[in-house]
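The material for today's practical consists of a large collection of protein records. A record pairs a protein's sequence with a compact description of its fold. Instead of coordinates, the fold is spelled out as a row of discrete tokens. We will come back to this pairing of sequence and fold again and again. Here is such a record, shown just as it appears in the course material.
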Amino acid sequence: MYRSSEMAYASMDFLGRGYITEQDLISHNAVKKLLCEFTETDIREMFINQSLFAPSNNHNQKHGGMIYDTFKKTFFPHLHQTFNLQDQIAEETAENDDKVVKLRTQKQPDYIRDQLKRLDHHLRNKVADNWTSVRKAFLSLDSDHDGMLDVEDFLKHFGQD
């Protein structure tokens, strides 16, 4: 019906108040077309469930109405990326932290744990036998000079033992 969220919002806020009320939205033609599938009560319940017109001190609410940012976030999310970057980063970090905790709490099979202990002991002995400082060991082992030690660096220096 509308090509942009700006046009849809402007058609409901034709007085230019800077917000639309629940009644503005209910009486709009686009919502009236929904009334053949949903009742007005259903639509008002959706407004309550989504807290679209809930009176609060929230910056998204103005005089009990809905401002443009809330409107486009709610009804046109596919056209506008209206998110707080800090909130998104915090949410992703929390999800990643949960995944790390799950991975750390999963118990490894005994044979893998034993192999890792033997490998750790073997590498410690090899490094201790060949170098007297960590810095010298790192500089010698980092054969590709990328600032990181990986499996290939150890294999190049110690071979397949």
Remarks:
- The chain has nine helices and two strands.
- The mean pLDDT is 77.
- The longest helix spans residues 85-105.
- The two ends are 71 Å apart (CA to CA).
